[in-house]
Amino acid sequence: MSFPKNFLWGGATSAAQYEGAYLEDGKLPSTADVMPLGSKKHKREITNQINKNKFYPSHTAVDGYHHYQRDIELFHEMGFTAYRFSIAWSRIYPHGDDQNPNQAGLDFYDKIVDQCLKYNIEPIVTLQHFDTPMGLKKYGFWASRKTVDFFVKYAQTLLIHFNNKIKYWLTFNEINNMSTMPWNAGGIKNEESESVKEKAAYFQLLASAKVVRLAHEINSNNKVGMMYNGHFSYPATCSPEDNLANQDFQKEMLFYADVQARGAYPKFKLKELEREKINLPFRSNDKKILSDGKVDFISFSYYMTHTCGVRTKGVIRGLNGLETGYINRYLKKSEWGWPIDPKGLRFGLNVLYDRYQLPLIIVENGLGAVDNFSPDGMIHDNYRIEYIKQHLLQLEKAISYDGIPVMGYLTWAPIDLVSASTGEMNKRYGFIYVDVNDHGKGSFKRIKKSSFYWYQNLIKSNGDRLFEEER
Ligand code: P53
After folding, report:
1. Percent of the chain at pLDDT exceeding 70
2. Helix or strand or coil: residue 414?
3. What's the CA-to-centroid distance between 419 and ligand 1, angstroms?
4. For a pocket test of ligand 1, which of 421, 427, 429 has the largest count of ligand atoms closer than 8 A to its C-beta?
5. Whose CA is nearest to atom 17 of ligand 1?
6. C-alpha span between 409 and 172 (Å, rounded)
7. What mean pLDDT value characterizes the chain?
8. Which domains does the chain have, with CATH numbers?
9. What is the distance in angstroms between the CA of the first residue and the CA of the last residue of the chain?
10. What's the CA-to-centroid distance between 26 and ligand 1, angstroms?
11. For the stretch 425-462, what's the b/e string if a residue is b when 16 or more beta carbons lie within 10 angstroms of its beta carbon?
């Protein structure tokens, strides 16, 4: 039992949750920068502009903008062979629709990429991770075909600039969040009509396909992946009705992957649009764009499984672990109420591989928890070690029993950062602690947790240590 040679080990972050410096060197606000701090109980609001009386976690985040050099050094110390980060569109084209790119933005990512390459860390870059430039509001963000062109131009700038340095690209983080969290995913408010939401999703799919093709034209070594929020689910009961409702949920989520992996809208989606009398703004060339833009691999995040049934219909907007209408009594929950299900990872890998037969990579998995210092001055985050270990044991089974080609495993996140759903800092994921609280106060000092040394040893053994621990 072991992991493949050249298996990628590492972690993932996103610009808006890690960098801070939200107006530095020419950057302008993105959709992430108008979401104030929320909490476990209270969803984050979306303010129309930046309100001086509110605290916006992304404005400072964990100040990665000024700490990335040391942070990547620490990733190297753990033995990372891959680091997934996102480029902030609003650093490269600050308004989203600018004529020319902002050189200072490119310079910043040059330094990040060079620091990775210096340590033989493979950069895996997400082009948009919950941060559409606010300057695109006047077009309706992703509800406009113009945004497709702006995005393709932004991607082209990066593909040319980083040619031969970055090989792995992901177009949209968790594109299926266009169904569940459309503001994060594309600047679309929940109150918008179904028709606007479907149109915005369509434009992202089109933009993604165009970028895949462009990436292949610019360099045939480029590999472009789709990024799926791993919303795998079980039926609430064995009743046929619950099974059909669960299947509907799965199809709604997987529809995005269907388009990106197979190059066309699936029949069930076309029928649904027809029933709802939604006319997508198809143009004659669009079909070919979608079919020419099939992805090379599938990446996904995995935190939990859902349980679905007849009550699920219509409640998926704003989905997190609890909003499908059912509680899975077989699973324990995290402090934030997310069901913990290591076997669900193996289940999900099988769902994706059965459906697409493409290489898979886990680009997010981890446990958000409150970390406390022990009297010895350390953070003994054994709960996090246990979470990751149990997931890796299941991942290994998917590779060695089920024969699924898995390219790598990246945790969310190797370093503490701002939570996307609540904006809290206290929901920590890292192997590296950052001294900053929910209100942005602290020294920003980096401190290694117990899990840092555990992950380091694990990578050193290419995963074999997992089985020694089990024996
Ligand atoms: P947080 C749920 C809610 C929001 C974003 O989430 C999510 C999920 C997972 O289903 O997706 C990813 O920070 C996302 C990251 C995010 C991470 O989950 O709310 O790609 O940006 O930080 C963890 O605990």
Report:
1. 98
2. coil
3. 7
4. 421
5. 420
6. 19
7. 96
8. 8-470 (3.20.20.80)
9. 13
10. 27
11. bbbbbbbbbbebebebeeebebbbbbbbebbeebbeeb
